[in-house]
Amino acid sequence: MTATAVNINAHFFEVLQNNTHPTFTLYDDDPVAGSYAPYCMINSFELSCEVADYVKFNVEFM
To answer: Quick one: which of 1, 6, 30, 31 is 20 to 30 A from 52 by CA?
Structure first.
């Protein structure tokens, strides 16, 4: 029996309890005409991971 090295990266997701939430600018990377959606905030976020499958996420923006 041999030991297997495992690397673990931890990511913490927090909810701010104030009125100054961080915002994002979503954009479409198109060489003809780009479109931007400034001041987007995450409304819901789901993260799932299964053994022998890809990590999947679902995000809803406001």
So the answer is: 1
What's the pLDDT band for 48 if we cut at 50, 70, 90?
A: very high
Phi first, then psi, for residue 59 (nearest 5°) are: -125, 135
Residue type at position 28: D
- The model's confidence at residue 1, banded by pLDDT at 50, 70 and 90, is low
Placement of tokens 């909810």 in the chain: 15
| Strand-pair partners of 60 | 44
pLDDT above 80 for 11 = no
The whole-angstrom separation of Cα 52 and Cα 18 is 39
- This prediction has a pTM of 0.49
- The Cα–Cα gap between 62 and 42 comes to 6
Q: Please name which of 40, 37, 9, 36 lies closest in space to residue 23, comparing C-alpha atoms.
A: 40
